[in-house]
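Why run this: before we spend reagent on co-expression, it is cheaper to look at a predicted model of the complex and decide which construct boundaries make sense. The entries below are exactly what would go into the expression plan.
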Amino acid sequence: MMKISEKELTRRGFITRVGQGLVATGVTAPLLKNAHAQLRVPDPPGKKLGWAIVGLGSLAINQILPAFAKCEKSKVVAFVSGHPDKANKLALRYNVNPKNIYNYQNYDSIKDNPEVDVIYIVLPNGMHAEYTIRGLQAGKHVLCEKPMASTSAECRQMIDAAKKADRKLMIAYRCHYEPYNKEAIRIARAHELGPTQMILADAGFAAGDPAQWRLHKALSGGGSMMDIGIYALNAARYLTGEEPTEVNAMSFTDRNDPRFKEVESNVIFQLRFPSGVIANCSSSYSYFHQSHYRVMGTEARLEMDPATWYNGNRMWIERGNKIEQIELQEADHFALEMDHMSDCVMQNKEPLTPGEEGLRDLTIIEAVYEAAKSGKTVKL
Amino acid sequence: MMKISEKELTRRGFITRVGQGLVATGVTAPLLKNAHAQLRVPDPPGKKLGWAIVGLGSLAINQILPAFAKCEKSKVVAFVSGHPDKANKLALRYNVNPKNIYNYQNYDSIKDNPEVDVIYIVLPNGMHAEYTIRGLQAGKHVLCEKPMASTSAECRQMIDAAKKADRKLMIAYRCHYEPYNKEAIRIARAHELGPTQMILADAGFAAGDPAQWRLHKALSGGGSMMDIGIYALNAARYLTGEEPTEVNAMSFTDRNDPRFKEVESNVIFQLRFPSGVIANCSSSYSYFHQSHYRVMGTEARLEMDPATWYNGNRMWIERGNKIEQIELQEADHFALEMDHMSDCVMQNKEPLTPGEEGLRDLTIIEAVYEAAKSGKTVKL
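The model came back. Tokens follow.
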């Protein structure tokens, strides 16, 4: 039986600490932070690299294009789209020269456009490999959305293409660049919770329209594991800073559900890391949403919920009989990752999340599928 | 990518609903509830059965003996202990006749004591089978702490002994009797969250003194899975109302830690249920404590944290973009389960958590150990 039963921990009883050198003073802090951000006048921009956005879906329209306003080193200069109407409309809004609008047929001619330094692939997963490789062959640097591709074999082809072209290839793991997840990584790896014993990470949501590309294997490469489970997987890896050596998994998909004729829905998977940390993770297209992790140290636990949303993430640490909420200055994840890419190109540095990072996740996702199918631990 | 990123869900923004016919009105409710409880004058007791407590450790002293004050159908009348000093002291406090103090040698003579109707086994796990069987053979009904025994084979012997003696045998799964977990069961099984897709359940704490009986296999039967992981396992079963058909597991124990020379520490395990629900669970003697579960339905999720403490448990439901805290009148878990047992004896009814319930958990725990060892899914 537990000896801790007498404690009265309450979620209402949060105490707040000032984040690592960042503004935060309790309940009113978000308002203060916003006011502060509005008042600060940005410095005049230095050199900005020119970006082409390939694929004008909801992620591009709602997140990526607005994020350029907050970039210091990146500007949008070109679109690649199969929908000229949409591209022209967005070109007006974002002041993109209509001559810089490409379609999937004349995409390769982007090589002749000196305004474009970096290509951002925001297409369905099944098209990542082809359009990344064509972009690299056009002599451009490429930022590619996650999952990197449908298979680890495709990932390897993409990495090879980048090497051959001597261009940068980065995968858009935005959580590596934003303050909350970076702070969680710092806390966990510094053993501020004591040595990590276990990671629990869960990511999923209820998929809607059965016609969406995510639910069609040729375009998505797979189901919830590829699209959203990858957040839980990647979190387990970045919170430990280690690579798993063993994978277990179990999955269930209701094949009578019209959404799941081709791809999997519910997956639970386990990872063993070399230090002894074990991770229990879940992924779903069927359950009500969650984006959540717990880092279980010997002396405290860190929780994020939501953990990996575009904004509004929350972090707290439970230690002794206190819950301490950690509030940090939020920042636009997409602006941060795009500027990181631009910076790597300008400074000739390797991105923090290169093609190899995407390959590692795809290799593990394939192991998850194999473990779920075979009922056996897959060794990596 | 998730479409839910715009929502601003805050844990501070809890809204409160009145529980199912129970007093609850927001933040001040706990105080009001206490005041209410203090003012209510209990009815004069009806018939109470006489209970003997076997094993006077911290659970008996701190939880079980004080709980008799809240029982309607149960009174403590006898002790069985290897420590006469402790037994005599407690006999004074609880008005137990000194002639009703037994030791482990003369325990069987309890059969001649008509004051004792029910025996409650609160010994280390490794002694459960022997003292339960001897109690049944003495013609008494037995409530036995969980885990029921060290092995499923012992559980079967205990069930057989109860049948042979025609006595009741109940296992002390107190969470089946207390309002919060009962309400979670009702909500999940009524599909108020939509059909359940996944259960996530975690239970563990950092074990202290290496000399304690829990860390010695002969007394404990096993490590964290037996003592605390059983809460996560049992929750997955009671929240679904189903029996698992498959088990995966992975474990890690630091054998250089003086606490873990004999028993396991960290275990993660997965369960598949016939309806398609899959469960991801964890157990630990090494991590900072947690007692937690999430029921992931298609339309909402129910969370309890803490979920299975003696008191102070908290429950909330997240649905749409609202978090709804559910506050219920707390009640003493031990008083509830003891009165259930007394009632079953008086009414000749089968307990809600009979020996078979304990056997099912032990069978699954053995499967967890086997799966962790073999690296293969164990089918049940």
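The radius of gyration of chain B is 21 Å. The first helix of chain B runs from residue 29 to 39. Bring this page to Monday's planning discussion.
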